Amino acid sequence: MDTVPKKSALGGNYELINPKDIDKALYLQINGAKITHEQLSKLAADIGFGNIQIGATGATTLTTVSSSSDTKSLAGENKVIRLMLIKNTDM
Predict the structure, then answer these.
(1) Contacts of 24 (CB under 8 A, 6+ apart)
(2) Using one digit for the tens of pLDDT, what is the confidence trace for 6-48?
(3) I want to staple 61 with a disulfide (CB 3.0 to 4.6 A). Which of 5, 15, 48, 55 is the partner?
(4) What is the pTM for the complete model shown?
């Protein structure tokens, strides 16, 4: 499993973990919480996902819109959130 640390729009580091047996999946680890829509959009652009939307509740819910939708809560301080994003092959 390859881990690539990068600087994020959140002011810290995030890691993209690309399992060799799942070529269409990227696991995004974010340290912290309360991500704004602007930060989320920048972070999505940084890792090549333009199809990420945030819910009406503000910075507590993130929904990936792709061939396989997934919703994860970003609530909670000092937690590591792991979010599986499936890249849409039609993009």
Answers:
(1) 86, 87, 89
(2) 554 444 444 444 444 333 333 444 444 455 556 666 666 665 5
(3) 55
(4) 0.28
Collapse the DSSP code of 62 into the 3-class scheme (helix H, G, I; strand E, B; otherwise coil) and give the result: strand
Residues contacting 70, CB < 8 A, separation 6+? 63, 64, 83, 84, 85, 86
Q: What is the pLDDT of residues 40-59, one digit of tens each?
A: 666 666 655 544 444 443 33
Structure token pair of residue 44: 């999505």
β-pair type (80-86, 25-31): antiparallel
Alpha-carbon gap, residue 51 to 41, rounded angstroms: 9
Q: Which residue's entry shows tokens 């939708």?
A: 69
- What ranges do the domains of the chain cover? 2-86
Q: What six digits make up the tokens of 18?
A: 């690309």
